[in-house]
C-alpha cells in the first residue's frame, strides 16, 4: 500500500524538484522569481516617484511571492496624509497587487 502511494506521488515529487531545483548554479527558480518580483515592484515605484529617498521591498510570504512589505520615503509624500500616500503606492502597483495575497505599506516623507 505504501509503495503504491509512493508511485502515485512520484510525478508530483518530480515537478516539485524541478520547481525548486538549481538552475546553472544561480539559485532555485523560487529564488530567481522572488528577487525579480521584488525588483519589479521597486522599479515600478521608482518610475512613478522619482523623489524616492529610501525604498525597501521584501517578500514576507515565506517564499511564495504572495505577500510583500513595502517601505518608502519619498518627496512626493510631503504634505499628504498617510491614506493619500498609501493610495499613491497602491495605484502605482495596482496590477501587481491583483496577483498578491496581501501587501504591507509603510510610507514617510523626508524631513
TrEMBL record:
Gene3D superfamilies cross-referenced by the UniProt entry: BolA-like (3.30.300.90)
Short name of any one Pfam family annotated for the protein: BolA
Domain of life: Eukaryota
InterPro entries: BolA, BolA-like_sf, Mt_Fe-S_assembly_factor
Entry-linked SUPFAM superfamilies: BolA-like (SSF82657)
PANTHER family the UniProt entry points to: BOLA-LIKE PROTEIN 3
Family: Belongs to the BolA/IbaG family.
Protein name per Swiss-Prot or TrEMBL: BolA-like protein 3
Species name: Plutella xylostella (Diamondback moth)
Lineage: Eukaryota, Metazoa, Ecdysozoa, Arthropoda, Hexapoda
